[in-house]
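step: validate -> pass
step: tokenize input -> pass
step: predict -> running
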Amino acid sequence: MRPVRHDAEPHLFEVGQTVRLRNGLDRRPGSAEFFRITRLLPPAGEALQYRIRNEAEPYERVVTEDRLDRVDTANDRKSGSLEERVFGLG
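step: predict -> pass
step: emit ->
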């Protein structure tokens, strides 16, 4: 188990923020792409971690910060489509 660092950099993303999961070997094509941050987790070694959730999936995922991309919610709020499509919000 990796030691927990108490002097780590602050998390880049916040709870409730919508993010995009980068493609990786553990992600099937066509699987969920947009997620909401549900919890900030302690770092694993040098990597900051997050718990994320997509409403279309029956589970949460734990990912490191380098696997996430920021979603431009300012543009998405204009159309309202991202939040409605991903989380059913209106």
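step: describe -> Residues 73-79 form the longest helix (7 residues).
step: cleanup -> pass
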